Recover the amino acids of this structure.
């Protein structure tokens, strides 16, 4: 018997191989002591059998095998080049590496000429496990499915929290109960997609944000993928993530994407903090600090570019506190609407007769950096590029169009080279420090090599322009994952600038994403995607909860609105140094109309609470808002930052309306804060400082 124990202060991860069989995860949960007898643990893990079953319980290994009698989803589905089904039966060979935080194993199936490498790394600082599978074959095979290492889901975790959504309403959650059979979600859109964020949280009944057991998973891949959460007939449960199911090209070497996993014994927030910290410190590289206040001109001008108006808008944005100006779609080719010019990455001389230099010079004179929008992976039929290279299209010629456009086949090296050359020429010729990289339609086919080619293009540009930051946008949140974040420094969470919708989206996305990479903008008074009119206070404070920016026409602001926005922006600048490395903790609220979260500094010496009331409350008086993640023995000075927003219908003597309070962490977490009464569609902002 061979055993391995990866552990940190929070969790233990124990694997075992008996008689050289593929290893099985025999324990995953709260940290075990170093003296734990692993052989006894393996013995205790064995299940019984009874009538109507095989005489032995087939192993639920890290790559389950049908050849062992396992009747659930196998980790590998493959055929020979002649079409014959392959039923792998691997034997453990040796360790490639084995430490307390790193394990790499090599297994072979000599009969089928297959080698399987399985790797697990437990990050002791973030408490996130990174796992991946690599398959090699001596002969060409057709691979239909290769899962990252399969993880067991304990029997007491009887629910799963799924993530779905749509355009302008990303990161919706749905809580489902495990049942016999497989819950399969396959994304065939070729990108991460609004509907199929590759994440899942398995949790116990009663688990909330701050208590209960949970196991979090995220598949770090930006293309099509499949998630399978299965309960077999014998009651065991497994979770698998991998690239989209479907025939892959013949090859001899295959690899899964990384699967990130973490355990929490104290609720969803511990999952969230682990993923947030891992993304911030291990995934995203070369992020500008301090994070600049962002201005994007899209919802101010759309395709109607006039350099005099843009200069005026830039000046107004700078006066409000913006530090980065991004010129969005419409600057290239003959791009007057979305029917033409994608692929023609040359500056439009009609709109910019002297190029972008006059606008860039003006922006930089205001103390702002300059950013530019691209959509490199797409092409319009009404473009010089398409007329010259109709053979560069991904998928059939008669496919449905999406937003009047087709997709370029980046699997062709000459296509990638052409895009690299065109983008590089623009970046070299202009003082550009930021690129908004958009992706406005689903792909006609889900091919892993298309995703790999996108990564390759990003890598080439990042190497050539190391000081340029890149944002991933795909009609908003259509391509957000740790895979794309290894190549970018920011994501556009949603095309919706509706602050009410944003509150919901941001709140759930915080289970995986830190504030530092999550763009959030103050939109127009009347939201262009929902038609809803929202007060500047809620719009501004909602944006201040993440990487703050503006995306409206500043010329529409009244003097009062401009003052409120300037003050909120100034507050964000004063606090961004600690907030961009803070942990975002979701608060459990008794009022379903309220969404609240606490941002806790890395040192734990300060926090800020954002409490939004999104609709009329059924409660006549607000119930106390219980905080979380504080030092129970410490005392905190607690202050209502926006006391000026108290309305006349708040008639009582709620202390926070007039005074700062000195309260213990124990009181704040056990009893909670009494907040003033307020109108719906408003926000309270509460600051806390350890005394």
């Amino acid at each position: 018997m061979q055993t391995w124990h990866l552990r940190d202060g929070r969790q233990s991860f124990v694997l075992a191989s008996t008689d050289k069989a593929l290893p099985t995860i025999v324990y995953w949960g709260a940290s075990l002591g170093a003296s734990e007898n692993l052989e006894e643990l393996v013995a205790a893990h064995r299940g019984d059998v009874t009538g109507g079953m095989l005489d032995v319980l087939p192993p639920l290994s890290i790559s389950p095998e049908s050849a062992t009698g396992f009747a659930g989803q196998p980790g590998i589905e493959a055929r020979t080049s002649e079409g014959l089904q392959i039923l792998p039966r691997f034997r453990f060979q040796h360790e490639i590496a084995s430490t307390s935080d790193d394990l790499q194993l090599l297994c072979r199936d000599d009969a089928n000429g297959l080698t399987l490498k399985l790797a697990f790394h437990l990050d002791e600082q973030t408490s996130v496990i990174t796992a991946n599978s690599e398959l090699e074959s001596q002969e060409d095979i057709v691979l239909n499915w290769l899962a990252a290492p399969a993880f067991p889901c304990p029997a007491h975790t009887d629910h799963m929290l799924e993530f779905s959504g749509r355009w302008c309403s990303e990161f919706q959650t749905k809580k489902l109960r495990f049942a016999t059979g497989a819950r399969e979600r396959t994304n065939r859109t070729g990108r991460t997609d609004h509907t199929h964020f590759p994440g899942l949280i398995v949790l116990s009944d009663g688990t909330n944000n701050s208590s209960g057991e949970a196991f979090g998973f995220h598949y770090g891949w930006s293309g099509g993928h499949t998630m399978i959460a299965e309960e077999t007939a014998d009651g065991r449960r497994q979770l698998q993530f991998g690239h989209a199911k479907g025939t892959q090209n013949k090859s001899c070497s295959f690899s899964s994407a990384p699967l990130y996993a973490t355990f929490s014994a104290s609720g969803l927030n511990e999952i969230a903090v682990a993923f947030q910290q891992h993304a911030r410190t291990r995934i995203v590289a070369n992020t500008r600090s301090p994070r600049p206040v962002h201005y994007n001109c899209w919802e101010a001008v759309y395709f109607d570019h006039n350099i005099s108006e843009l200069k005026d808008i830039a000046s107004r944005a700078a006066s409000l506190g913006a530090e980065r100006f991004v010129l969005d779609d419409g600057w290239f080719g003959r791009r007057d609407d979305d029917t033409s010019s994608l692929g023609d990455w040359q500056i439009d001389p009609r709109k910019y007769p002297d190029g972008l230099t006059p606008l860039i010079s003006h922006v930089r004179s205001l103390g702002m950096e300059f950013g530019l929008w691209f959509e490199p992976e797409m092409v319009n039929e009404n473009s010089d590029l398409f007329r010259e290279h109709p053979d560069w299209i991904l998928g059939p010629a008669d496919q449905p169009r999406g937003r009047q456009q087709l997709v370029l086949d980046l699997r062709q090296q000459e296509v990638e080279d052409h895009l690299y050359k065109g983008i590089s020429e623009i970046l070299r010729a202009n003082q550009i420090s930021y690129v908004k990289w958009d992706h406005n339609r689903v792909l006609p086919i889900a091919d892993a090599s298309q995703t790999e080619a996108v990564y390759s293009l990003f890598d080439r540009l990042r190497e050539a322009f190391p000081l340029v930051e890149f944002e991933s946008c795909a009609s908003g949140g259509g391509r957000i994952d740790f895979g794309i974040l290894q190549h970018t420094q920011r994501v556009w969470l949603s095309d919706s600038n509706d602050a009410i919708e944003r509150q919901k989206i941001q709140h759930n996305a915080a289970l995986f994403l830190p504030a530092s990479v999550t763009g959030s903008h103050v939109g127009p008074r009347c939201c262009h995607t929902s038609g809803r009119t929202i007060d500047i206070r809620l719009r501004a404070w909602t944006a201040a909860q993440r990487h703050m920016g503006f995306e409206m026409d500043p010329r529409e602001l009244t003097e009062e609105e401009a003052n409120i926005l300037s003050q909120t922006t100034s507050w964000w600048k004063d606090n961004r140094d600690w907030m961009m490395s803070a942990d975002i903790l979701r608060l459990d609220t008794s009022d379903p109309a309220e969404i609240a979260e606490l941002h806790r500094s890395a040192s734990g010496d300060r926090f800020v609470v954002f409490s939004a009331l999104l609709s009329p409350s059924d409660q006549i008086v607000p119930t106390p808002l219980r905080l979380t993640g504080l030092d129970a023995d410490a005392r905190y000075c607690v202050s209502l930052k926006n006391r000026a927003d108290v309305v006349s219908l708040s008639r009582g003597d709620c202390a926070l309306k007039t005074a700062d309070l000195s309260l213990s962490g124990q009181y704040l977490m056990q009893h909670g804060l009494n907040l003033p009464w307020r109108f719906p569609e408003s926000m309270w902002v509460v600051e806390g400082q350890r005394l």
